[in-house]
Amino acid sequence: MSDITVIIEAPLEELWFDLDDLCRLGVVEACWLEQRLADGALLACPDAPDATRCYNAVTLTRLRRLACLERDFDALPELAALVADLEEEVRRLQDRLKTLED
């Protein structure tokens, strides 16, 4: 079996994934993902182009961060979600500060 790397040339906001894609790309089990969705740590995208592809690249990025926090730091899912929220807020504030400084 050979590894195949696929290069996708599309803006991140145009990439949409279904549940199976998200699990495969995020390297998580479906039950892990479904639990985080049920807990509200991850959200489906309300503006998805159709009902079967309801996750975008932002969701994938957050999924990977949550999985990393839980795995590497043995964080509880709730704590991992809080840390991810705080990191996202810090990033937003840094972007805003940079805009105001320019």
DSSP strand tally: 2
Gross CATH architecture: Orthogonal Bundle
- Give Rg in angstroms: 15 Å
The rough form would be described as: globular
The oligomeric status of these chains comes to single chain
Q: H/E order of the elements? A: EHHEHH
Class computed from helices, strands and strand pairing: mainly alpha
Task: Describe the protein's architecture and organization.
With 102 residues, this protein is mainly alpha-helical. The protein has a single domain (13-101), classed as Multidrug-efflux Transporter Regulator, Chain: A, Domain 2 (Orthogonal Bundle), CATH 1.10.1660. It has four helices and two strands, in the order E-H-H-E-H-H. The protein has helices spanning 19-26, 30-39, 57-72, 77-101; strands at residues 16-17, 55-56. The protein has a two-stranded antiparallel ribbon with strand order 1-2. The longest helix is centred in the C-terminal third of the chain and has 25 residues, at 77-101. It is globular, with a radius of gyration of 15 Å. The model has no long low-confidence stretch (mean pLDDT 87).
Please give a handful of descriptors for the protein shown:
single chain; mainly alpha; Multidrug-efflux Transporter Regulator, Chain: A, Domain 2; two-stranded antiparallel sheet; 4 helices; 58% helix; 4% strand
